[in-house]
Design goal:
The complex is a heterodimer. Chain A is of the alpha+beta class. Helices cover 23% and strands 19% of the residues of chain A. Chain B is an alpha+beta fold. Helices cover 49% and strands 9% of the residues of chain B. The N and C termini of chain B lie far apart (58 Å). The chains are: A alpha+beta, B alpha+beta. At the A-B interface, helix 1 of A face helix 4 of B. The structure holds protoporphyrin IX containing FE and iron/sulfur cluster.
């Protein structure tokens, strides 16, 4: 499972990195930085939580 | 325009009513039956999640040009009334100052301020939550953040209300107060900027004064226009949210106990109650070109209200959002707006709300509405006129 980030859509709501801080981080502007591309085994639920709470649909799973 | 199922058509006051309604969810449900409502000569309303989200994402079409919001300001509010590409410049300066990591440093100070405010009435066993807590807290935090004297609190509250809640029933009647208040705000910050140039400080205002993009610093006018917006955007909104959250909890003891007994519920409870109450029910835009939504033509220059509150309870987009679940996951709500104008202060607001709810419930876990109280919500932005609470006197 891979996480994708559309940087043009991310507006820095910060939902992802607050809810799953070891998968997502913030840059200096509060926008999302992916800490992993491939979701580690057992962390699928956290990845889904981060992705699905994004109000901008900037994150995806594939 | 079609009438709704109760035979009424939305009137021009619908956005105002959405904030003040006892049950804005019911009103939103009725509005969502139609994708667009047109209120002749005033504006269009977009009611559904999908359409609101699409509009937020097209700032070149659904613009925030200055005529979208007229609040007595003589120049555009920065960054609210600025469109891309210029908007990007301002957000590049302001975003780092309001980023979560930066805001987290404030938490301890907010804890102290919240407890000082609770100290004033805890032993009495009653308070008007609105007057005694929800109004002073955000303003006090803001003064501290900007390095302004706490003695200016009352003046700030007057300035905020003079713009957001001026006396008078119509725009025309409200206009003189707005204009006079706006002049006072500009004058206050002009004086402050001059003082700061003589005696530099180390606070948010100093950081804004010292920041630059591509080597270019902000002009004094730009700084004034940012400060003006902070007063409008950053004080009343937090008061509204506190009123909404505590108004809800005072009437829903099970939910109150759920978060009072387990602090870890608080962050998601706050997201959920922001979604449910949507204290800012709508954001305004002006069309730059002709568009059509759901077969309804809208013309360049016309005003559109994006009903983020109605979008937040749109169960066609997200099943189950027509009830409250303090542990809702996922909860991708739009209470702070969306797209490029996403609330700059959202991370600050979240800290204020989180600390307020946590510290309050540590000291006053049980409270109730003074018997016989009928809650009345305000127009435009959803706060309460009064929220009288009683509780066992606490230390
Ligand atoms: C819970 C409290 C708050 C709520 C619900 C809220 C809501 C919103 C919303 C919905 C918008 C979008 C407006 C639009 O798209 O036209 C917005 C923008 C804004 N908010 Fe907040 N806000 C809150 C607190 C704050 C605070 C504490 C500040 C502190 C300074 C603040 C500063 C701003 C600014 C500067 C903008 C304009 C951003 C831009 O246009 O780029 N807000 N807010
Ligand atoms: S939740 Fe979405 S918009 Fe917010 S920081 Fe994460 S990716 Fe960006």
């Amino acid at each position: 499972m891979r996480i994708t980030l559309d940087v043009d859509r991310c507006q820095g709501h910060g939902r992802c990195y607050v809810l799953a801080p070891d998968l997502f981080d913030a840059d200096d502007f509060g926008h999302c930085v992916l800490l992993v591309d491939d979701v580690p085994a057992g962390r699928e639920d956290d990845a889904r939580t981060g992705v699905e709470n994004c109000p901008e649909q900037a994150l995806g799973l594939e | 325009m079609e009438a709704d199922d109760e035979g009424r058509s939305p009137s021009g006051s619908v956005v105002v009513d959405l904030a003040s309604a006892d049950d804005p969810r019911a009103m939103s449900r009725m509005l969502r039956q139609q994708r667009v409502h047109t209120i002749e000569g005033m504006f269009h309303l977009l009611t559904r999640r999908e359409d609101v989200e699409a509009a937020l994402r097209k700032p070149a079409v659904y613009t925030s040009r200055p005529e979208a919001v007229q609040l007595g300001n003589i120049r555009p509010l920065i960054p609210l009334s600025v469109d891309p590409p210029k908007h990007v410049k301002y957000r590049r300066i302001l975003d780092p100052l309001f980023a979560p990591k930066h805001m987290a440093a404030l938490e301890d100070e907010v804890v102290t301020l919240v407890n000082q405010i609770v100290d004033r009435f805890a032993a009495k066993g009653s308070c008007d939550f609105h007057e005694d807590f929800a109004v002073p807290l955000p303003c006090t935090v803001f003064l501290r953040l900007m390095g302004l004297p706490l003695a200016d609190l009352d003046m700030f509250l007057e300035m905020k209300d003079g713009i957001i809640r001026p006396p008078g029933a119509t725009q025309e009647e409200q206009e003189p107060t707005r204009r006079r208040t706006a002049q006072n705000i500009y004058a206050y910050f002009e004086k402050t900027l001059a003082e700061r140039r003589r005696a530099p400080t180390d606070d948010l205002l100093a950081q804004i004064m010292g920041s630059s993009v591509d080597g270019v610093q902000l002009t004094d006018e730009e700084i004034l226009d940012i400060c003006f917006l902070f007063i409008i955007a950053g004080l009343d909104t937090v008061t509204d949210s506190l009123d909404c959250i505590f108004g809800y909890l005072s009437q829903e003891p099970e939910h109150r106990r759920q978060l009072a007994s387990d602090e870890s519920v608080i962050p998601s409870a706050i997201e959920e109650l922001l979604r449910w109450e949507s204290p800012v029910p709508a954001v305004p835009r002006v069309l730059s070109e002709d568009v059509e939504v759901g077969g309804c033509p809208m013309k360049a220059g016309e005003h559109v209200m994006l009903l983020i509150g109605a979008a937040n309870t749109d169960d066609a987009a997200h099943p189950g959002v027509d009830s409250v679940d303090l542990l809702r996951n996922p909860n991708p709500h739009l209470a702070f707006g969306g797209g490029v104008h996403r609330c700059l202060g959202s991370h600050l607001a979240r800290i204020e709300l989180r600390v307020a709810v946590r510290e309050w419930h540590k000291r006053i876990p049980e409270y109730e509405l003074v018997p016989g109280t009928v809650l009345q919500y305000t127009e435009g932005l959803r706060s309460l006129h009064h929220l009288p609470l009683t509780f066992a006197p606490a230390g």
